[in-house]
Amino acid sequence: MERILLDTDVVSFYLRGHASVLERVARYLEHHAQLELSVVSYYELRRGLIRIGASRRLRDLEIFVAQSRLWEVSYEIAHEASTIAGSLMAQGEKLDDADILIAATARVLGVGVATGNIRHFGRIDGLLVENWIERRE
Fold this sequence. Notes:
The chain is of the alpha/beta class. Helix content is 57%, strand content 12%. The chain has helices at 8-15, 19-29, 39-52, 55-66, 75-90, 97-109, 118-121, and strands spanning 4-6, 36-38, 69-71, 112-115, 129-131. Helix 1 packs across helix 3 (39-52), helix 3 (39-52) runs antiparallel to helix 4 and helix 5 packs across helix 6.
């Protein structure tokens, strides 16, 4: 099983105990020492939990992040993100900055993205996308 970067929605489903995501994470951890996510996902998750006042889930997030590999946005990732965004815009398409930064992180690392947002991430050339949520868009 190849390394993969978790998208925000996968971490959210994991923290809420979604059975199929828990199963995928368990299988992944049989082959890898830890999960990986972008600091952008951490920001999105933490912002949302603070907004709704979910203090227990906020603690769960902090524990999850402490046990995971958190990738910061580097110059190289910002450079790649601007390339992705510019290419999409040139084709008349748009994707939110968070998804672009997460995708750029994965491309720079040479890994795929585990997500339920196949339609969004699938538009990015050269990015391996795996549906870990199994919902249909």
